[in-house]
Amino acid sequence: MIQVKLSILIPLYNNKNGLKNILNCLHKIKNEDAKYLEIIISDDSDIPHLRNRSINKLKDKFKHFHYKHNSPKLGASNNWNRLIEISKG
Questions:
Q1: DSSP 5-58
Q2: CB–CB of 89/37 below 8 Å?
Q3: Cα separation of 56 and 59, whole Å?
Q4: Mean pLDDT of 57-66
Q5: 54-76 burial by CB neighbour count: b if 16+ within 10 A, else e?
Q6: What is the pTM (predicted TM-score) of this model?
Q7: Angle (nearest 5°) at CA 84 between 81 and 87
Q8: Confidence of residue 14 (pLDDT cuts 50, 70, 90)
Q9: CA neighbours within 13 Å on the CB side: how many for 41?
Q10: 82 phi and psi, to 5 degrees?
Q11: Cα–Cα distance between 43 and 67 in angstroms, integer?
Q12: How confident is the model at residue 50 (pLDDT cuts 50, 70, 90)?
């Protein structure tokens, strides 16, 4: 089993342009490097971003990919803390 070497933690809250920029960067990561990375998105947005096609493509690229839409919202600090608690890298 491949061990996670780095976790990329992404707290979301109603920022489509910021998410788009982050996803564009993640898609540029080489496939051979992607197997060592863990991507975790914790979404406090009003509408889940899971429907975003770019997020769905990340599921295929990164073996360690997690997305969670929070309902009810966690708030900024709890959203960050949740990401840190569940990360493995």
A1: -EEEEEEESS-HHHHHHHHHHHHTS-HHHHTTEEEEEEE-SSS-STT-HHHHHH
A2: yes
A3: 5
A4: 87
A5: ebeebeebbebbebbbbeeebee
A6: 0.86
A7: 150
A8: confident
A9: 22
A10: -60, -45
A11: 8
A12: low
